[in-house]
Amino acid sequence: MEKIKFEDLLGSGAHFGHVTRKWNPNYKPYILMEKNGVHIINIDETIRHLYRAVDFIQEKAKKKGEFLFVGTKKQARDIVQQEADRCSMFYVVERWLGGTLTNFTTIKKSIKRLNLLEKEGSQIYENQTKKEIQMLNRERIKLSDQHRGIKDMRRLPDAVIIVDASLETTAVKEASVLGIPIIAIVDSNTDPTPIQYPIPANDDSIRTIQLIMNVIADAIMEVSAKKAN
After folding, report:
1. Which keywords belong to this entry (predicted)?
2. Which of 91, 146, 147, 224 sits CB 3.0–4.6 Å from 84 for a disulfide?
3. Pairing relation of β-strands 31-35 and 16-19?
4. Which of 98, 67, 88 is nearest to 162 (CA)?
């Protein structure tokens, strides 16, 4: 696994926080300075916390741990899906459905319904009118959009990996209720205290998100490769 470089994070703008009036006081340990009304994040802290998270992720991966990547903001969607796919893990990149974790039994029923609708030659389509088949197809498309990243998730994840904890508050709350560890990129407007493994960085920068998610996916793949050998 290639180590992330200080210069790469700096070049990606990882150090740019929000304007000072939007800061969360609990974020203070990660702030290097204030410049032109903007908080500057300490990249040394970014790197330290990223590899603390990586150590945890790899320990979980060694025990066949499964991870759920979450990133529904525009800047994160493609990256999160790509990196989750690359390391064969699950993802949510569309709207987070309330109960995805806390009501997982119902979500599993919905996924079972989707699998039935997607099954080639499924009996569900037999003896149906044209209008009824159209309705079933619409239902299939809707469920596919909702569950495409978690369709094969048979159980609750061992950890949740989040881009922008301040946006994904429902995911954070659900994971917290269930005691599922959270790894999250946190910007200066975010309270990092509910996050077990916060990674302080600019969560609006596409390049920063890419760098961090790439390291995390590589960490999971490194463990998988060692197991295969």
Report:
1. Ribonucleoprotein, Ribosomal protein
2. 91
3. unpaired
4. 67
